[in-house]
């Protein structure tokens, strides 16, 4: 397959031609879905009005587009990319298409941490973020420790993760049932995963955190690709496998927990995006960039569908992503059964 070498200064990277085409096509799809998201609302805004609003004009409709619709569209883009990358990280580590944060309990752990911040503490943005990260890290640690003594890169880890996910889901239900009525109602609504009502204040810190995590991940991507060839090959090329896995787990948990802290646990994007991206790119392993792009498209598209289904009532995006992801999971399980 033909490849293109991209150079900037002393740095160079070899990219397959198919991957470049995929990036271009997905960028156009993201821009198109984003334009629809900026145009759609109680009053339809033409593309001309959208472009005028983005340049700082447009009057009252410009304020609506910039302050209400644009944060939601960008949240779908950035959060979808973060979830897609997190899914790709864990599917690479486990070498299993079901090894995503929402399947192996990391989403549930992050939700547990957020619930503690809501019910025990005052539930500020900083407390939600911290609680989500701590909960996700503890869930990942529990899955890892329970997997010791067997293969941590295959079905054993996934099965243990599913069990941990079930336990944490029960714990989360117990916390909600024990909470005061107003807090329980807010927690249950938030648990569906929603981008309704997000504004710039909600997004500044999460966007900064995700940007830093993705930048760090970019420096570890070559080592990740080496480890995908096998532990023996990675070690012979100088990759410290255990240290790399720890770094990747922390990055994946950080991405998942940051999204959960703002939007709640959004299911199945992290599961489906990496595998769809891998098939579109025709690449071995689970490449990160296609997973991020597909994740962005899936979450943006699911949020747009959530706004359209029962308009003018806007559904939580997690309702749509769960419906889509459930169908994908059935197909994936059927395929795995046929293969085994």
From TrEMBL:
Q: Which GO terms describe its cellular component?
A: plasma membrane
Family the UniProt entry places it in: Belongs to the binding-protein-dependent transport system permease family. FecCD subfamily.
Molecular function, one GO term? transmembrane transporter activity
**Taking the first listed entry, what is the main subcellular location of this protein, grouped into a coarse class?**
membrane
Q: Name one GO biological process term.
A: siderophore-iron import into cell
**Name the record gives this protein:** Iron complex transport system permease protein
Could you tell me which PANTHER family the record lists for this protein? FERRIC ENTEROBACTIN TRANSPORT SYSTEM PERMEASE PROTEIN (PTHR30472), FERRIC ENTEROBACTIN TRANSPORT SYSTEM PERMEASE PROTEIN FEPG (PTHR30472:SF24)
**Short name of any one Pfam family annotated for the protein:** FecCD
Where are its TM segments located?
20-40, 73-91, 103-122, 128-148, 155-175, 181-198, 205-224, 244-273, 280-302, 308-334
Per the UniProt entry, what species is this protein from, by scientific name?
Saccharothrix tamanrassetensis
Q: Mind listing the UniProt keywords for this protein, alphabetically?
A: Cell membrane, Membrane, Transmembrane, Transmembrane helix, Transport
Q: Where in the cell is it found?
A: Cell membrane
Annotated InterPro entries: ABC_BtuC-like, ABC_transptr_permease_BtuC
Note the superkingdom of the native organism: Bacteria
Its placement in the membrane is given as:
Multi-pass membrane protein
Keyword Transmembrane in the entry? The reply is yes
